[in-house]
Structure formats: C-alpha cells, structure tokens
Write a structure and sequence with these properties.
single chain; alpha+beta; Beta-galactosidase, Chain A, domain 5; nine-stranded antiparallel beta sheet; about 35% helix; elongated
C-alpha cells in the first residue's frame, strides 16, 4: 500500500499549499479599493479634465524614449527627440464604447485608464474592473511615440481634434484624433480607432512633412507598469505577472521583472513576426505588429519601480510635402481564448496552465463545448465529471473489483496477521501468497486515484486561469465557481462521500495506516473549504459516481463469495 500512501501524501501536500495560501490572504490587511478601481479625479466626457498630476501619482511622462539598435537602424542612428523639461499629466479625454471606458492623456496621447464594462472587480462585484490605470498604488499604462528630429513622443503635448467620444448606437467604429502641438517641421496626428464588441484598439500616426528635409523615422509602442501583482494573486501558487513575447522561432516566452531588472532577460529581439505585451491573471495588454514587418522588441527597467516592454518599427521615408502612416493594433482585455487566438498566433498561450497544459487545454475546450449547450458552468462541470467517469469506466471497474476482493479476503488477512504477529518477513510472504492464490493485485485500488490526480490538478488550473469561469455562477448560494463555497456546504458533502467510500474500501492491515485512513475524510473536508467551489463540485460528483460503482461491484463480489461452490451445478 506504499504507492497509495504516496498518492495521498501528494494530494495532502497540495491541499496544505492551498490552505496556507488562503491563510496568508485572510491574515493580510485589506487592499484599498482605489488600487483596483483607479478612479481619476476630473475625468470628463471631453478634454476638460483637470491638468496636472494627481497627488501621489507617479509621472510616466518622464520615462526615457526608446531607441532602435543598430540592427534595426544602421549607423548613424536616427536622432531622438528629448524634451528638456519633465512634463506632468495633462487633460484627460474620456471615450466610451460598448466594452470599455478609456481615458487618454493629452501628454503623450497615453492610454492611462481602461475600465472593462463586462468584467467586475475581484472582490467588488458591483464595480467594473479597471485594467489600465495610474494611481498612487499602481501604474499600468500604454504609451507610444515617434523617434526622429522634431517628431512627437510620449512626452509631447497633444490637443483633441473635435469629434464624437462615444460609440453611438449602430456605429461600428469610433475614431479619436489628437494633433501634436509641438512637432517641428511636421504635422502629426495620433489616431485611436475603437471597435464595437472588441477590446482591440488601433493606434496610428498620420505624419505629414511640412519641412524641407526628408526623414526616415521610427515608431515605438510600449506598455509601462510596476511589478505589483493583481489583487487576489497568490504567492504560494502564483499566476504569472510580467512580460510575454511570442515569435515563430521561439514561441511563447515569459520575461520576468526580476530578469529584466538584473539584465538577465533572454528573448527574441529582432523578428518580422510575433507580439509583445504584459500579462497578468485573466488579462493581457499586447502590441500586435503586422506580420512580415521588421521590428525590434525591448523590455527594460525605467526607474521608480517601473518596467517598459514594447516594440520599435521603422516608418517609411517622409519626403518634403509627403505624408505617411504607421499603425499598430493594441489588445487590452480579458484572455478569452477563442477570441484572442484569432487576433495573433500564440496570444491564447497567455492563458497559462503550466505543466498540466496537456490535460487542462482539452478539459477547458470540452467544458466550454458543454457550456454552450447548457449555459451554466456548474452544470457543465457536472456533465464533464460524468463524461470523464464514463471514459475511465473499464479501468475504474477493474480497480474496484480488486478492492472488493481485498475486502472479501480481509478475514484471511487478519488470521495471517494473528499467525505472524512478530515476524514481518513471514507476514509479508504469507500475504503475497494469499494475493497470488486469490489473484488479487493489492495496488489495483490505487488506479482510480492515479487517474484522477492529473484531471484534478488540471481542472484546478482551468478554474484558476480561465477568465470565462471568473465570477461564473452555479445556482443558489454558489455565485462564483472560481472561489470557495461561502457556506462550506459542498466541502461538507464531499467529506461525507469520502466517509462512505472509506467504509466501502478494505481496511488496511497496518493499524497505523488504518487510523490515518479513518481521519483522512475529515482532513480533506477541511482543506476543501478553501478550494474553488467548481473544483469541489467536480470532486463531489466524482465521489458520488464512484460510490455507486464501487457499491455495486462490492455487493456483487461479496454475493459471489458467499455463494457455495456447488451452487448452480445440476
């Protein structure tokens, strides 16, 4: 039974990890709501917001302008515009669509705030989730600019070109235009295009050369944020928060803030494909350059605890009197796997299931397929459990038959134990001989647990990492399957099913192990108080199905064992 003990210890250790994490979260002081809400005073429905940086809010307009390397810009490198004075925040422009409320600062034309109208805050279901923000607690903003003499960058002031700022009913696109007021020899318009039913924003520059000299500039697009993980993140079983880069050559690469800070970050910098962005639990902000376009990816610390990650692309030569345009799609929103996977190759990999991706990915897609039929994630989990149980029915049946045989020969094992109370060698030999005679595999009962472990952990990561299950209700008191049952009803029911399973299983010959097995249902029941309700629901339904199958097989085996050998012979 040593393998069974190892399996149980593995699950026990995993449970302890979850329990310790929940204790840490409950023992910490509450995080101020402003850290997630990111309310900005003076934001209006036009460019009439209050100028100047809010008190305590770090300035991001003073961050250095990216420069292309010699690989992208052969020497001599294009000079960059470096304003001498640090600029604070300007006026805020508020844009509303059917999916987001965005705020653009007239300094740099930065996207400083993005409120998602279809997602709620982690611990405040009555308030919308704010992804991008600039507050005293958190900085997470989007910047872009041009690199070249007299061209505007993220420190340059813009003014709003009059036009609508709300996506009207029946309108598919909303275009917001900002005109640079500091360009020298150029007329530059920064254009944002928002689309209905989408988190994709197209950021573009319209560049007109009004001077006498041609120039071949560059454009950069970056995401700037601090290293603070999102609210609700775990330090024992953490979700990833950091930079992500994808290219055809190296596929999906994580670039941690620690590696960036220590100058140890390794990722593809030169490519003509891929994307770069910032990833956090459930959400991603990424720049998606056009395929077959030369680009240079960068990730670096920029001081004050901030990091930038972005891409530099060349702009076609702008001759005197000529105009060019450069554009870059930006996705900032939830990691909805079926949608983001269509925007760019590998973008769906930001939903990271870790080592159990091979199990978690098909489980999620099957679960989502069931959800499309029943429109309830809890019911989908129940049907998924039934499907998994049916898939492994033959294996489970063989295992339960082995366990039932162990239960039938339990009296014989007890007599052997009484016969050799002090001789473990002879005791083991006699037991193995009995197993051989009765054709019993003593480890056969471990197979159901072995089968369930990868599914159990994979489903845990599906519930933890899939934004589709975030705040998903079941019924009654279960309003969010991704968090623990608030009244602990499901864990108590699950503990009860484990007691029934224990009584149907053969008692281990080792008295110490027997005592441990008797208390395991209560220990596991306590740990499952802190597991996501969806996971406990899966385990509960699985136990109920296992009890039915095990009870039927055990009853059948005991009936066959009680029948006289000559019964049925005529």
């Amino acid at each position: 039974m040593e393998i069974r003990q190892i399996i149980l210890f593995f699950i026990f250790a995993f449970s302890v990890l979850m329990l310790a994490d929940e204790w840490r979260k409950t023992s910490q002081p509450p995080v101020p709501v402003v850290a997630e809400a990111g309310e900005v005073a003076g934001a209006g429905n036009s460019a009439a917001g209050a100028p100047g940086a809010a008190a305590g809010v770090p300035s991001v307009s003073t961050t250095p302008t990216p420069r292309p390397s010699e690989k992208l810009a052969p020497a001599p490198s294009v000079p960059t515009s470096e304003p001498g004075a640090a600029l604070g925040s300007g006026e805020r422009i508020r844009i509303e669509t059917d999916r987001v409320i965005a705020e653009i600062d007239t300094v740099g034309g930065d996207l400083r705030r993005l409120e998602l109208l279809r997602h709620k805050q982690t611990y405040a279901y009555d308030k919308n989730f704010v992804l991008l923000q600039q507050t005293a607690q958190n900085t997470y903003v989007v910047q872009s600019g041009l690199i070249g003499t007299g061209l505007p960058n993220h420190r340059t002031r813009y003014r709003l070109v009059p036009g609508p700022l709300t996506l009207a009913e029946g309108q598919d696109k909303l275009v917001v235009r900002l005109e640079s007021i500091e360009a020298d020899g150029f007329k530059v318009v920064k254009r944002f295009t928002f689309s209905r039913d989408s988190y994709l924003v197209d950021v573009a520059y319209e560049i007109a050369n009004t001077g006498r000299e041609a120039q071949s500039p560059f454009a950069y697009f970056q995401v700037v944020r601090d290293r603070t993980p999102p609210i609700g993140d775990s330090w024992l079983v953490p979700t990833y928060t950091g930079v992500a880069v994808y290219t055809d050559a190296e596929k999906y690469q994580k670039v941690s803030f620690d590696d960036i800070e220590k100058n140890k970050a390794k990722f593809v910098t030169q490519a003509d494909n891929g994307w770069i962005g910032m990833v956090q639990h459930y959400f991603v902000t990424a720049w998606l350059p056009t395929p077959k376009q030369n680009r240079e990816y960068f990730a670096k610390p920029i001081g004050n605890g901030l990091f930038s990650a972005g891409v530099i692309v060349p702009v076609p030569m702008v001759a005197p009197g000529a105009s060019v345009e450069v554009q870059m799609p930006l996705y900032s929103g939830p990691q909805e796997q079926d949608k983001i996977g269509q925007l760019a190759p590998g973008l769906d990999l930001t939903v990271d299931y870790g080592l159990f991706t091979i199990f978690a990915t098909p489980i999620f897609w099957f679960l989502k397929w069931i959800y499309a039929l029943v429109h309830n994630w809890g019911v989908a989990i129940i049907l998924l459990t039934v499907a998994i149980k049916l898939a492994f029915f033959p294996l489970s049946a063989a295992s339960y038959r082995s366990m039932a045989k162990m239960r039938v020969v339990a009296p014989k094992l007890q007599r052997i134990k009484e016969l050799y109370p002090d001789d473990k060698t002879k005791l083991q030999q006699a037991m193995m001989e009995l197993y051989k005679t009765e054709k019993i595999n003593p480890l056969g009962g471990c197979l159901p647990i072995l089968v369930q472990i990868p599914v159990f952990i994979a489903l845990y990561w599906v519930l933890l990492g899939s934004v589709e299950l975030r705040h998903a209700p079941f019924f009654g008191w279960i309003t969010d399957l991704s968090v623990p049952d608030p009244f602990y009803i499901l864990p108590l029911l699950m503990a009860g099913t484990m007691v029934i399973q224990m009584r149907l299983s053969p008692e281990p010959p080792d008295p110490v192990q027997a005592r441990v097995m008797k208390v395991m249902p209560f220990i596991f029941g306590a740990f499952f108080f802190f597991f996501p309700a969806g996971l406990v629901l899966y385990w509960l339904i699985n136990n109920i199905l296992s009890i039915a199958q095990q009870w039927y097989i055990t009853r059948q085996m005991e009936s066959d064992a009680a029948r006289p050998a000559h019964a049925g012979k005529r």
